[in-house]
Amino acid sequence: xxxxxxxxxxxxxxxxxxxxxxxxxxxxxxxxxxxxxxxxxxxxxxxxxxxxxxxxxxxxxxxxxxxxxxxxxxxxxxxxxxxxxxxxxxxxxxxxxxxxxxxxxxxxxxxxxxxxxxxxxxxxxxxxxxxxxxxxxxxxxxxxxxxxxxxxxxxxxxxxxxxxxxxxxxxxxxxxxxxxxxxxxxxxxxxxxxxxxxxxxxxxxxxxxxxxxxxxxxxxxxxxxxxxxxxxxxxxxxxxxxxxxxxxxx
Length: 250
Hints:
This protein is α/β, with parallel strands linked by helices. It is 24% helix and 34% strand. Strand 11, helix 6 (189-202) and strand 12 form a beta-alpha-beta unit. The longest helix is centred in the C-terminal third of the chain and has 14 residues, at 189-202.
């Protein structure tokens, strides 16, 4: 039955992965798109990136971190239960420019989840940096290792991989002489801003994914508006992926 949770996997103490039945979304989804879900009547609506889709099985994969009431309720759900509402796919699909041959992908924290479908979709040479506060929060390592030509890990506390931030790891790759045609960075705003500013100085085109609070996914609520190249844009309908050099992070 549509919206039914077919499988649930705990990725860390506060992050769960769900396989959900929805043939229509699975068949129309493209990388970069998302859904808006509601768990219960009178509950809030929250956006979730579609991490993967299987049109043949009619399923989509969602990854949820428990940071508020609704996400906690989602992570408490069990296999066989149904989401009340599941709307999508929403947003604009994202595909890297055809001329991009070698791309650096950077994911921070839960930004690793929306980064994965973009890495998987890129059929050329991809180098991936994953960063998190500690080892348990470095999710989707197995999937990334399979999709990427090179995978680098870093943690704030040094519990896995390099100790430090994703920008430290990025600079280390540049010092090795690695050269890229583009960069895709997804994670907390301060992380994306730091990556954009470093890459701006190098002239390395950088794309970021903006995932603010969204209510309707159509731009009507205005909760996800921001300044882009001097104009007002809405992350839900115009994005969520944008040219990082044109985003006003302030």
